[in-house]
Amino acid sequence: MSDIESRQLLSYYRTMLLIREFESRLDKFFVDGRLHGTTHPCTGQEATAVGACAGIRPTDYVVSNHRGHGHFIAKTGTPERLMAELFGKATGVSGGRGGSQHIADIASGFLASNGITGGGLPIAAGAALSIKMQGRDQVVLCFFGDGAANQGTFHESVNMAAIWKLPLILFCENNLYAMSTPFNDAFPVSNVSDRADGYAMPGKIIDGNDVCVVRDAVREAARHVRSGAGPYLVEALTYRHCGHSKSDGCEYRPDAEEAEWALKDPIKLLRKKLLDAVPQQEIDSIEQAVRNEIDEAVAFALDSPQPSTDDLEGSIWAN
Amino acid sequence: MSEIFYSQAIRDALREEMARDERVLLLGEDIAGYGGAFRVTRGLVEQFGPERIRNTPISENSIVGVAVGSAMLGARPIVEIMFMDFITLAIDQLFNHAAKFRFMFGEQVTLPIVIRTPSGGRRGYGPTHSQSLESLFMSMPGIKIAAPSTPHDAKGMLKSAIRDNNPVLFVENKSLYGTRGEVPDEDYVVPLGSAKVVREGSHVTVISYSQMVQECLRAAQMLERDGVSAEVIDLRTLNPLDMDTLCRSIEKTGRVVLAEEGHRTGGVCAEIGFQLFEKLYYYLDAPIKRVAALDVPVPASPVLEKFVLPDHQDVYEAVKEVLAEV
Ligand SMILES: Cc1ncc(C[n+]2csc(CCOP(=O)(O)OP(=O)(O)O)c2C)c(N)n1
Ligand SMILES: [Mg+2]
After folding, report:
1. Cβ count near A281 (within 10 Å)
2. In which domain, by residue range, is B136 found?
3. Which of A201, A216, A254, B251 has its CA 20 to 30 A from that of A122?
4. Residue B81 maps to which CATH number?
5. pTM of this prediction?
């Protein structure tokens, strides 16, 4: 492995760990009763978030879904304002109004996450339409789950993107379940990517737990869509290591399947790969740095003021 | 009588009606093994099997459309929409199809459909998981709206809804699932379209439905300590409205406060308040007041959510204002 390569892998490792530590800290806060509401953790799916965002340019856009903390951290690189959002604070990315599944950081190119399954797909297509009409060279990377591919919005917006040749990467995180529903109970085909043919676009199925595989696939997709050839579907197979949301004990998943996927933990896999290339100390120090960064994010969130209740109605309308 | 949870009351009604009529089936996301997001249908698939407790893909508009089509050929489908917010995805099938077929096809069609859905906030779920959208349905002829506030009414009204030959929107405020109440052991129904005086009083009539009834009852207790006697009416059904029960009370008290968890403008209270004004102008001793959510999305932040959503304190203050008018 070249030095550049190992630096890159270390940086992916750092972001993936940041995401995992973020989610595990949230989990503790929910258990302690310091956070209320709900959240959809992406533990186990860090490679898709980090790999996909590494495959586009910083100037490109991301549209996310309900399981979006990883997407956000991978795209923006920072956890503190997301942590503050979870605590409902004024300094949160959405000013505390959105909470876990309603976040946006337009300046960083993170257009929107979405509490409505499938809601992001047409938004992403629309953003891609503006890019195309304005003659810009950006692309939109739209994250969605397997379950979202059964909403009408998937078919409708993918069709539009295809006939208009929009610069849209459809990135499906197929974690084999939509809430408790196994993939095969909801699809007559074996893969989401089998649907690509129906919209005359490429559909590629990949290992979503290998961050480099994900990055390379999205790079390829970005090249394709940026060239004006229309949308490109990447289906990344992955698995959540946790319940759908905080109230889910996952009784519907076979133990053997969970155990099998535990072995394919994207962070462990990357760590193993890194150990061949860099000294263990370096990895340890990243782990420590990540814990510190999350500590700081928590401190930032806790120290932040509550949002003001003054003139909420005034913020409905633009001037 | 047994004391059971609101969610259990719903489950019992589903179970009993499915046993009673084999045309009844359930459609919805994660309703079988998982029992739905709020576990209301838990255990039903074991009894009735996956044909009748039918898990669907995430496709709200078509789930409702499938219910409409199946009802045209003799089924009596019950759809669970996981959160009321998601009913917006199915508004086309509900408003352009379910609500109109009977009328526009010259009464050839009957659509015995129930759409059950959890509404409301107070859980920090944020803007797309906390809405109370029943007012949208009030302006759509052709869909009944039931919104019971107790386990007793939930069970009895759900049974009525299932036996009804029209589309019925059945609203279950999430905060009610964990509340308990007495329910008869034998079969009973609570008819749709009947409001109920849940607390008698003489100074003011407080009208509400669903979870806000609990807030109104708390406010009434606070008011009693101040020497104010508030009559509280649970609408139970928003369409058809039981205006008679409301009028009888207001003719007595002359003062009205209406309360709902939905947005203030164009809300349920707005409609009912106007109907009361039309009917009872000469009986009113003070302007009608309403208590509702601010006209902004329901925020996730606990501080903001509490500020935006109405509660017993707001009802209490509204009553005080109505009584201050001479
Ligand atoms: C319109 C709508 N329907 C249902 C839901 C409830 N819901 C939230 S996430 C989810 C499952 C989504 O599955 P998938 O797209 O595979 O994403 P995953 O959760 O597996 O990451 C469901 C049913 C919702 N939020 N919005
Ligand atoms: Mg999934």
Report:
1. 8
2. 2-183
3. A216
4. 3.40.50.970
5. 0.97
Check whether residue B32 and residue B86 sit in a common domain.
Answer: yes
Rg (CA), chain B: 19
- Let me know whether B246 and B301 are in one domain: yes
Count of beta carbons in the 10 Å neighbourhood of residue A176 = 16
Q: Could you tell me if B21 and B139 lie in one domain?
A: yes
Substitution target from B304, B307, B309 for chain A, most A beta carbons within 10 A: B304
Torsion, Cα A214 A220 A224 A227, to 10 degrees, reads: 120
- Tell me: do B78 and B150 sit in the same domain: yes
Do B43 and B168 belong to one domain? Answer: yes
Distance from CA of A101 to the nearest CA of B (A): 8
Q: B301 CA to chain A: closest CA distance, Å?
A: 4
Bridge partners (DSSP) listed for residue A142? A63, A170
Domain co-membership, B167 together with B220: no
- In this structure, what are the phi and psi dihedrals at residue A148, rounded to the nearest 5 degrees? -65, -20
First to last CA, chain A: 54
Residues B203 and B173 in one domain: no
Q: Would you call B197 an interface residue with chain A, using a CB distance cutoff of 8 Å?
A: no
Q: What total number of domains does chain B contain?
A: 2
Are B172 and B255 found together in one domain?
no
Whether the pLDDT of residue B173 is over 80: the answer is: yes
| pLDDT > 90? residue A82 | yes
pLDDT digits (tens, 9 = 90+) for B72-81: 999 999 999 9
